[in-house]
Amino acid sequence: xxxxxxxxxxxxxFDEVGGRTNIRKLGLSAAVTYSTADGxxxxxxxxxxxxxxxxxxxxxxxxxxxxxxxxYEVLRAYHDDxxxxxxxxxxLDHIFKRLGFRVSLDNLASATLGASKSADGLxxxxxxxxxxxxxxxxxxxxxxxVTRQLYEYGQKHKHVKFKDRGYRTKMxxxxx
Length: 176
Prior knowledge:
43% of the residues lie in helices and 22% in strands.
């Protein structure tokens, strides 16, 4: 089974495109996948977005964090034929349905894995404007690795952890 973990970074921020309702206007700066079929990371830019979409379509399962409402929407600006909900595990969507509120990837990774993200999406936008593609790809790859580890932890332990507003560690059951 080929599971493809992925994440995208954008060229623009929400402020630059008129808000969250205009995700398709953000533009792809970079994307990274990790394929369990070959055990490697793959890097993409706007010039190779068709290769990214083909790799996602060929996957048996696509896994990401906020991919249904964000990453796929960014990609729909380039192509509408994306994997459907039936072959996608959106970990944020799953956790939101369990808890009734959103928890960041950084919060989950820190509480569950003791790891944290190296930057954030706004920093990636700044790097894009500075032409610093390698930093974006490195950051995006680290996010994909954290996503993969969190998914595998949840599969093995049937829960992941997060810190609530009182900084108490809580568990949320998962069934991905």
